[in-house]
Design brief:
14 helices; 7 strands; single chain; two-stranded antiparallel ribbon; elongated; Alpha-Beta Plaits; alpha+beta
Length: about 375
């Protein structure tokens, strides 16, 4: 069970990372296209190297377009699909960074392109800074991206005629980029942790709002939702839907004679016994209020539902509930009803029929099962 919860958390976390990656990818590719236009214009690349200019522009445009396709896969498809999508998008981002790093290296090493050197350096600083801030989701991949983008500058500047101060400034800035990226990665991980904590807290509140805090079975609100759902399923499929209303007999005596703590313990043990008896697939157990409980049995007709109800009644009679004070002899009256959707009946009619059968069991002497209409 713990492994299942961990897998669910990991899937949601990966889906959040994919969504964040998608959001940060959208605009970035176009700036590389604009950067190339600025650098190539300043360095007169279009006139001197027309084919290279066109091929590079097309490469940047293609990489920018790939950021929009394909869409983020639905998390229902599983973690493998999300990982494949992330790996593909990172490949596009790193390819873009490598292409720009190659352009920077060319501009720095080719004296004929010196006119575009300042523009190339400024664009590189801007791209690397944006990369460090916007792509901290995977630290090692982000470090590789920044290195592909930026490292040609401090490595190759000493071989140019740029001043020593420019080379030192660029080298020092590379340290800043590393620090920023590591810090941004930590901030992003903490953001994910906070998101996980808030989501888990929300899920816990949602669960508590649907669970009876004493017995651990569903509460009346949850029962109402389940009843509406199963009625709809019964109408679509044509399969029967049975409902049981169970009411403990003379429960007030338990509180009067043994105290309310014993009464609460009795309700808890009764709910445990219900879980023991109603193990059929799809059974929905609820506490409707006080000592009254409900059971929904999808796919069960009157005979099958009455058989389970009788098993529950006989279980209490044969095996008294065990409390701290000792065994407690207690009986239950149970009403059974089956939905007839072809007659236009809905959830309210089903509940009233089961409740009516339960009261008939009470008036006929308690400790018995009665089926509506029988």
């Amino acid at each position: 069970m713990r492994e299942t919860i961990d897998d669910d958390v990991a899937l949601l976390r990966l889906a959040r990372e994919a969504a964040d990656t998608r959001q940060r990818l959208i605009a970035g590719g176009l700036f590389y296209v604009l950067g190339w236009l600025v650098v190539s214009t300043a360095g007169d690349v279009f006139r001197e190297h027309t084919a290279i200019w066109a091929a590079t522009a097309l490469a940047f445009l293609a990489l920018a377009a790939l950021r929009f396709w394909p869409a983020v896969p639905d998390q229902q498809l599983g973690m493998d699909r999300l990982r494949q999508w992330l790996d593909r998008q990172w490949a596009v981002v790193l390819a873009t960074a490598a292409l720009w790093g190659g352009i920077l290296s060319w501009v720095l090493l080719d004296p004929h392109l010196a006119g575009g050197r300042s523009a190339a350096l400024l664009c590189t600083i801007a791209f690397a800074t944006a990369f460090a801030h916007n792509y901290p989701l995977r630290r090692n991949r982000a470090l590789l991206g920044v290195a592909l983008l930026y490292l040609p500058a401090p490595i190759l500047l000493p071989y140019t005629d740029e001043s020593l101060s420019v080379g030192i400034t660029v080298a020092v800035y590379s340290v800043y980029l590393g620090v920023v990226l590591v810090r941004s990665h930590g901030d992003y991980q903490r953001q994910l942790d906070l998101y996980d904590a808030l989501r888990m807290q929300r899920d816990q509140y949602e669960r508590l709002s649907r669970i009876d805090p004493l017995t651990g079975v569903a509460n009346r609100r949850s029962f109402s939702g389940a009843l509406e759902h199963h009625v709809g399923e019964a109408r679509r499929s044509g399969r029967p839907l049975a409902m049981l209303v169970l009411d403990l007999d003379h429960f007030k005596r338990v509180n009067d004679e043994h105290g309310h703590d014993a009464g609460d313990a009795c309700l808890v043990r009764f709910a445990d016994r219900m879980r023991e008896i109603f193990t059929v697939p799809g059974a929905h157990l609820s506490r409707l209020g006080g000592e009254e409980f409900g059971v929904l049995l999808p796919g069960h007709g009157a005979d099958a539902a009455a058989g389970l109800a009788e098993a529950m009644r006989a279980s209490l009679e044969d095996r008294p509930l065990q409390l701290r004070e000792g065994p407690l002899a207690l009986t239950v009256s149970i009403g059974v009803a089956v939905l007839h959707p072809d007659a236009g009946e809905g959830g309210d009619e089903l509940y009233r029929a089961a409740d009516r059968a339960m009261y008939r069991a009470k008036t006929e002497g308690r400790n018995r099962v009665r089926v509506d209409g029988v």
